[in-house]
Design a protein that fits this description.
Order of helices and strands: EEEEEEEEEEEE
Distance between the termini: 40 Å
Largest sheet: 7 strands, mixed
Oligomer: single chain
């Protein structure tokens, strides 16, 4: 199985930046499509960002487009979520996700193969 461990969550002021990291186990990390989801209490886990297996393409939810980026470093088996211009509505538990079956990261909860345990990001006004 693939294990994903997130880090980098914490408290940040609105307008600030935060970088999340997700370290993945496995010898075939470069073959995984990777992504990030987020969830707040009472709401469904929602797609935030994805990066293809080949890292040729990245894609984002409309709510974070032009503010977040999702680089990956295959040599370190790590994917990041760089969050800029943070807003209070970005407050959520952020989950790293991996897909091993396809080229792209699924945009739905049911389509994800592996999940991290999450890291909390709190954006204060």
């Amino acid at each position: 199985q693939v294990q994903l461990v997130e880090s980098g969550g914490g408290l940040v002021q609105a307008g600030g930046s935060q970088r999340l990291s997700c370290a993945a186990s496995g010898r075939t990390f470069s073959m995984y499509a990777m992504g990030w989801f987020r969830q707040v209490p009472g709401k469904e886990r929602e797609f935030v960002a994805g990066i293809t297996r080949s890292a040729v393409s990245t894609y984002y939810a409309d709510s974070v487009k032009d503010r977040f980026t999702i680089p990956r470093d295959n040599a370190k088996n790590t994917v990041y979520l760089q969050m800029n211009s943070l807003k209070p509505e970005d407050t959520a538990v952020y989950y790293c996700a991996a897909s091993i079956l396809g080229t792209t990261m699924p945009r739905t909860y049911a389509g994800v193969d592996y999940w991290g345990k999450g890291t909390l990001v709190t954006v204060s006004s």
